[in-house]
């Protein structure tokens, strides 16, 4: 499976220009298609769900064109039902395309087949189908009653009167019906059965219908009257607001990661209900400021985020972000009235519970609620995303707790926000890493320790891990070429670094691992792929704020490929042998310069030739040859690179 490894983050701040709203994009496209006249749509969202709608409209005989590579589209409305009367539409997992098109096509007098991905076929549509059947539509659920795929056939529509639709499973059923009803040309009253959920989405629908010339008469949230003789007319140009649900990740990032973090494209003047996510965040203590077209979030003035108990029915999508923000609160947090999560891209309550537990949270899961108790310390984990863009996006916030995280199948974000992880990476500051790689005795350990001290950062001597593995394997009587045996030792190495000492099962082995036997042994176990793999996470755990200086052979290539500064430190073999000789003499350890040189050349050759993680100078690493340079000069050189920002 494809995955994305996110580094631990120190904080987040900056400005993000949001992609267009999915809800608005797909509604505006459908309204523009059904309207009389041409509509210019500016800042349309470019994403999978919108592609599904654009493809479907084209198949149905609606002409549209994109202005070059811009986000501006021109749609030539058909001024009534769709002209193409026979079509098969594949709509992926796009609920915002599937539901409204079902209603519009049911009233278009043609024969249509609508299908999607397997998950789409598990998402209920029965309430909408029932309402449309009550109007006379001929709709068959070809697999399971109440679920896509659907087969629509021409039928005489009994327009007018009252049609009832359930509002307590998905508000998209009501949206779909309202948007399609003007096609009948007759006044129709829609009565909502059950408590309407996600009301703000209905507000978006009504607002956009009004912009296209159809004023729905609203009686509370129970009755809506679509007037007779109403026809959609293009308003000319429509600007798509930024996506308020997508804004939630960045606002939460500002609240968790310091901020201030500003999102542009939504604000006080927004028609999207999810802007109220900002209010929820405010209740957690975040500092929120707002303009007409922007919102900014920063961490509480004092302390961390506060625990919460909130009814989130009005912001079901953005509420997922709060479930992850809860990991940073000062106590258990309750998310209430979120039953609609169960019929979204995945069963989001179940998925959220499983994944939040992976990072250490305690979870209580109910039919329509979730209680999240944050862990004392977040744990790195591989997060499954269930083909759900929001799972992927909201979990990225975990990294703001200084915790690295793997996101499986990260491309699911394409549904609504294709560039999400790049944008997140621009505002979130990764814990910085200086990677120093190079051959034996080139001075990596010495330089790394000095640089780390000067910066006040942590230091990792990765070679000592390979040395420890060799020592532990030799002591356990395991042959150094027994890959599985040595890897098992590496996976469970009882080693600690404390007060400048290196301890193996509590015993000080700082000098023992520097012996020639351990040097040769380390070089041998280092060629084993499984051993390297077993030590990978252990090395990555050293990436802790404010920063890390790590040295070895594959730090810049494998362990921390995203390191901001990469140095390839080297010196001639003769001077390295001489340095190592002096070093051993100072420690009172026996040595012979000729055999040191030979041994060092052999190890260099082994390190450079091995198939896994060989020692190479990467194109993005800066070469530092210290044959003619002192330690002080080498340290100053690296510090200059760090200060210059890599
Ligand atoms: N630029 C340099 N000039 C002279 N001696 C150096 C230089 N860099 C390191 N040394 C010395 O060489 C020895 C080996 O360095 P070390 O940091 O252990 O290398 P590595 O970690 O690359 O094996 C140490 O005694 C160190 O003081
Ligand atoms: N990141 C690393 C670090 C060390 N090693 C191996 O571990 C051995 C000991 O590493 P070290 O850095 O302590 O070795 P010296 O450079 O001090 O001789 C090296 O000879 C390498 O083969 C590695 O393969 N990858």
Automatic annotation (TrEMBL):
<dbReference type="GO" id="GO:0003866">
    <property type="term" value="F:3-phosphoshikimate 1-carboxyvinyltransferase activity"/>
</dbReference>
<protein>
    <recommendedName>
        <fullName>Multifunctional fusion protein</fullName>
        <ecNumber>2.5.1.19</ecNumber>
        <ecNumber>2.7.4.25</ecNumber>
    </recommendedName>
</protein>
<feature type="domain" description="Enolpyruvate transferase">
    <location>
        <begin position="13"/>
        <end position="423"/>
    </location>
</feature>
<feature type="binding site">
    <location>
        <position position="171"/>
    </location>
    <ligand>
        <name>3-phosphoshikimate</name>
    </ligand>
</feature>
<dbReference type="GO" id="GO:0016301">
    <property type="term" value="F:kinase activity"/>
</dbReference>
<feature type="binding site">
    <location>
        <position position="344"/>
    </location>
    <ligand>
        <name>3-phosphoshikimate</name>
    </ligand>
</feature>
<dbReference type="Pfam" id="PF00275">
    <property type="entry name" value="EPSP_synthase"/>
</dbReference>
<dbReference type="Pfam" id="PF02224">
    <property type="entry name" value="Cytidylate_kin"/>
</dbReference>
<feature type="binding site">
    <location>
        <position position="172"/>
    </location>
    <ligand>
        <name>phosphoenolpyruvate</name>
    </ligand>
</feature>
<dbReference type="InterPro" id="IPR011994">
    <property type="entry name" value="Cytidylate_kinase_dom"/>
</dbReference>
<feature type="active site" description="Proton acceptor">
    <location>
        <position position="317"/>
    </location>
</feature>
<dbReference type="InterPro" id="IPR003136">
    <property type="entry name" value="Cytidylate_kin"/>
</dbReference>
<feature type="binding site">
    <location>
        <position position="22"/>
    </location>
    <ligand>
        <name>phosphoenolpyruvate</name>
    </ligand>
</feature>
<feature type="binding site">
    <location>
        <position position="23"/>
    </location>
    <ligand>
        <name>3-phosphoshikimate</name>
    </ligand>
</feature>
<feature type="binding site">
    <location>
        <position position="415"/>
    </location>
    <ligand>
        <name>phosphoenolpyruvate</name>
    </ligand>
</feature>
<feature type="binding site">
    <location>
        <position position="95"/>
    </location>
    <ligand>
        <name>phosphoenolpyruvate</name>
    </ligand>
</feature>
<dbReference type="InterPro" id="IPR001986">
    <property type="entry name" value="Enolpyruvate_Tfrase_dom"/>
</dbReference>
<feature type="binding site">
    <location>
        <position position="390"/>
    </location>
    <ligand>
        <name>phosphoenolpyruvate</name>
    </ligand>
</feature>
<feature type="binding site">
    <location>
        <position position="172"/>
    </location>
    <ligand>
        <name>3-phosphoshikimate</name>
    </ligand>
</feature>
<comment type="subunit">
    <text>Monomer.</text>
</comment>
<comment type="pathway">
    <text>Metabolic intermediate biosynthesis; chorismate biosynthesis; chorismate from D-erythrose 4-phosphate and phosphoenolpyruvate: step 6/7.</text>
</comment>
<dbReference type="InterPro" id="IPR023193">
    <property type="entry name" value="EPSP_synthase_CS"/>
</dbReference>
<dbReference type="InterPro" id="IPR013792">
    <property type="entry name" value="RNA3'P_cycl/enolpyr_Trfase_a/b"/>
</dbReference>
<keyword id="KW-0028">Amino-acid biosynthesis</keyword>
<dbReference type="InterPro" id="IPR036968">
    <property type="entry name" value="Enolpyruvate_Tfrase_sf"/>
</dbReference>
<comment type="similarity">
    <text>Belongs to the EPSP synthase family.</text>
</comment>
<feature type="domain" description="Cytidylate kinase">
    <location>
        <begin position="434"/>
        <end position="643"/>
    </location>
</feature>
<feature type="binding site">
    <location>
        <position position="317"/>
    </location>
    <ligand>
        <name>3-phosphoshikimate</name>
    </ligand>
</feature>
<dbReference type="InterPro" id="IPR027417">
    <property type="entry name" value="P-loop_NTPase"/>
</dbReference>
<comment type="function">
    <text>Catalyzes the transfer of the enolpyruvyl moiety of phosphoenolpyruvate (PEP) to the 5-hydroxyl of shikimate-3-phosphate (S3P) to produce enolpyruvyl shikimate-3-phosphate and inorganic phosphate.</text>
</comment>
<comment type="similarity">
    <text>Belongs to the cytidylate kinase family. Type 1 subfamily.</text>
</comment>
<keyword id="KW-0808">Transferase</keyword>
<keyword id="KW-0963">Cytoplasm</keyword>
<keyword id="KW-0547">Nucleotide-binding</keyword>
<feature type="binding site">
    <location>
        <position position="123"/>
    </location>
    <ligand>
        <name>phosphoenolpyruvate</name>
    </ligand>
</feature>
<feature type="binding site">
    <location>
        <position position="27"/>
    </location>
    <ligand>
        <name>3-phosphoshikimate</name>
    </ligand>
</feature>
<keyword id="KW-0067">ATP-binding</keyword>
<keyword id="KW-0057">Aromatic amino acid biosynthesis</keyword>
<feature type="binding site">
    <location>
        <begin position="438"/>
        <end position="446"/>
    </location>
    <ligand>
        <name>ATP</name>
    </ligand>
</feature>
<feature type="binding site">
    <location>
        <position position="22"/>
    </location>
    <ligand>
        <name>3-phosphoshikimate</name>
    </ligand>
</feature>
<feature type="binding site">
    <location>
        <position position="348"/>
    </location>
    <ligand>
        <name>phosphoenolpyruvate</name>
    </ligand>
</feature>
<dbReference type="InterPro" id="IPR006264">
    <property type="entry name" value="EPSP_synthase"/>
</dbReference>
